[in-house]
């Protein structure tokens, strides 16, 4: 099986990478979730927010905000992530399609 070609950004706002990081809360078993989006060319953090839950709806809202804030045009950007639920959920994918953002996912390890 052939490996996919690596993603290479030649300038800012071409490829963003994002993930959700679990952060311990003040109470045992309580977590907060850091949503962080970074431009892979410039390493600029284009947005970060902390929430009390992890969801594809929140992910979609953040991407919509970022694209408006950064004035991203349809077909301009690739958004790379792992294969987590909030990254591949129907709401998130529909938002990406509406915005003209191309999703990219890490290859699953079998």
Number of helices: 3
**Strand adjacency order, main sheet:** 3-2-1-4-5
pLDDT under 50 segments (min length 5)? none
Order of helices and strands: EEEHEHHE
Report, as a whole number of angstroms, the end-to-end distance: 13 Å
Q: Tell me, what's the shape?
A: globular
Average pLDDT, all residues: 90
What integer value in Å does the Rg equal? 14 Å
Assign the CATH class. Answer: Alpha Beta
Residue share in β-strands: 25-35%
Main β-sheet description: 5 strands, mixed
Describe, in plain words, how this protein is organized in 3D.
It is a single chain. This protein is an alpha/beta fold and 110 residues long. The chain contains three helices and five strands. It has helices at residues 56-69, 85-88, 90-99, and strands at residues 15-24, 31-39, 45-51, 78-81, 102-105. A five-stranded mixed β-sheet has the order 3-2-1-4-5, with helices on one face. Helix 1 (56-69) runs parallel beside helix 3. The mean pLDDT is 90.
Supply the key terms.
110 residues
Task: Show the helix and strand layout.
Elements: E1 15-24, E2 31-39, E3 45-51, H1 56-69, E4 78-81, H2 85-88, H3 90-99, E5 102-105
Parallel strand pairs: 1-4, 4-5
Antiparallel strand pairs: 1-2, 2-3
């Amino acid at each position: 099986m052939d490996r996919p070609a690596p993603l290479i950004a030649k300038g800012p706002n071409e490829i963003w990478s994002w993930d959700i990081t679990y952060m311990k809360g003040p109470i045992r078993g309580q977590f907060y979730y850091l949503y962080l989006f970074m431009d892979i060319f410039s390493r600029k953090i284009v947005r970060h927010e902390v929430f009390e839950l992890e969801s594809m709806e929140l992910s979609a809202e953040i991407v919509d905000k970022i694209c408006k804030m950064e004035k991203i045009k349809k077909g301009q950007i690739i958004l790379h992530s792992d294969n987590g639920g909030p990254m591949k959920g129907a709401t998130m994918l529909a938002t990406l399609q509406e915005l003209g953002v191309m999703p990219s996912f890490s290859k699953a390890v079998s």
